[in-house]
Amino acid sequence: MSGPEQPSVIGEEWSDERVKSWLFTTPWDRKISADYQALLKAYQAMRAHDFERFLGFFTEAGRDLNGLNDEGLTILDRVSEHRRSQAYAESLRRHGAKKASELAE
What we know:
The chain is mainly alpha-helical. It has one domain. The protein is 47% helix and 0% strand. It is built from 6 helices and no strands. The longest helix has 13 residues, at 48-60. It starts with 15 loop residues before the first helix and ends with a helix. The mean pLDDT is 87. InterPro entries: PA4642-like.
């Protein structure tokens, strides 16, 4: 055995501090906006209701919901590609996120 195993935790409640900690995610590639990277990592790690809370903290901090990745897409573009992400996409829309095609209008 190479190290201690982490116990499986199901239904763990995330504190506001834990949710807010995702605001400080930094991009590994300078072509990706720091705002996009923080949203992507939060989307990948959080349940839908925690992601909704994160978006509130994100927008309160003055962050950009429409930051672009290296392909010129927003997080809403990315999330909308996934079949089971409707709750995430709806949360993004409620907070003012747009698809890249909508930004050009």
